[in-house]
Amino acid sequence: MTSQESNLCDLLNDESFIRWMRGTSSDIEKKSWDKWLHTNNHKHQQLIKEAEKYLMMPFNTIDVEDEIPEEAKRLNTEIAK
Amino acid sequence: MNKEQTFNSEHLFNSPKHRRREGYPVIIKGIEVGDYYMLGSIGKLKDLKNLNNSDLDKLWSEIRKGQEDSLSELFCHSYTWLFNYGYKIVPRKAFIKDTLQELFLNLWKNRNSIKEAHSVKSYLLSSLRRIIFRKLRKHRNRTERNHTYKQNLFEEILNIEELMVHFELEQNKRDQLTLAIKSLSKRQREAVHLKFYNGLSNSEIAQVMNINKQSVYNHISKAIKNMQEIVSV
C-alpha cells in the first residue's frame, strides 16, 4: 500500500475525521483537524478531496418511502391486536 | 435525498390544513401517513429522516417506557435504510417487509426487557440481520431439495455507471472498476455498505457483522485500496 493509500485508509477508518468532514465533530476535534489541514495544506486538501468522494459514494438503493405509511399502519394494527 | 420528499415540519405544525385532529389522517405533500405518524414526543415536529443519534436515543428510551408513538416514529425514520440493508441480503421485497414488521413487533413486545442501546442504529441493523439469517436457515431446511433458497449477500451494492460519473472516470476504466468492485468479498462489500451508506462507525459495523474492529478496518482498507488503484484523484 502506498503512503497516500495508507493515509486515506487511516482517515476513512478514523471516526473523528469522519465527524469533522460531516460537521458533527466536537470543538476539540474541529480544532485538531483544522490544525492538521493547515499543516501540509496541499497534501491534506488532496486527501480531503479523495475522502469526500468515498463518503459521498452513490449506492444502489430502492425508493420505498411510499410504502412507509401503509407499513406503519400494518405495524400499528398488529400491535393493537 | 430527493428534496421534494423532504417534510417541511415547521409549515405542517402551524398550517390549519395539516393540523392533526383526532381521527383525521395527516397529509404530507399529498401522502396520507396516518394520524399516529407525525406527532411524537420529540418536542416539535421534525423531519423524521434527519433524526440524529440523540433523537434516536430519546425515542428508544420512550419506547422502553411504553410510548407507542415513539415506536411509530422510529419505524418511519429507519424504514428506508433498514429495508435497503435487508434487501442487499435477500432481494425479495415481501420478505424484507415482513421481516421489518417482525423486528419492530418484537421490539414492542420486549420493550420492558430491552436495555439502553449503545447505538440504536446498529442495534436495529444487527437485529434485522439476525432475523433474516434465522428465517433463511429455516427456509433452506424446508426447500433445499428444490434449490429455491437464494440470497444475494451484497451483490450490486454499487452502480458502476454512477460511480464512473461520481469519480469522473474515463470510459476505458469501466472494466477495471467493475473488476475492482466484483473482487471484493461479500464481507468487504457489507462493511462498505454499512460504513458509507449507513454511516456506521467501525465499532458499530463490528457489532452488526459480529466481527472484531480490526477485521472491519481490514475490510474497509481492502475495499478502498481496490478502488484507489482506479479512481485516484
Please describe what this structure looks like.
- The complex is a heterodimer of chains A (81) and B (233).
- With 81 residues, chain A is mostly helical.
- Helices cover 72% and strands 0% of the residues of chain A.
- With 233 residues, chain B is mainly alpha-helical.
- In chain B, a hairpin with a 2-residue loop joins strand 1 (27-28) and strand 2.
- The interface between A and B is large, with 38 and 51 residues.
User: From N to C, what is the helix and strand string of chain A?
Assistant: HHHHH
Mean pLDDT figure of chain B? 78
First-last Cα distance of chain A? 58 Å
Q: From the helix content, strand content and strand pairing of chain B, which structural class follows?
A: mainly alpha
Given as residue ranges, the uncertain stretches of chain A (5+ residues, pLDDT < 50) are: none
Largest sheet of chain B: 2 strands, antiparallel
Radius of gyration of chain B (CA) equals 20 Å
Radius of gyration of chain A: 20 Å
Percent of residues of chain A in helical segments? Answer: over 70%
Average pLDDT of chain A works out at: 89
Reading the helices and strands of chain B in chain order gives: HEEHHHHHHHHH
Tally of individual helices of chain B: 10
Largest interface: A-B, 38 and 51 residues
Instruction: Please indicate the percent range of residues of chain A in DSSP E strands (runs of 2 or more).
Output: under 5%
Beta-strand segment tally of chain A: 0
Uncertain runs of chain B:
1-46, 145-150
* Cα shape of chain B: elongated
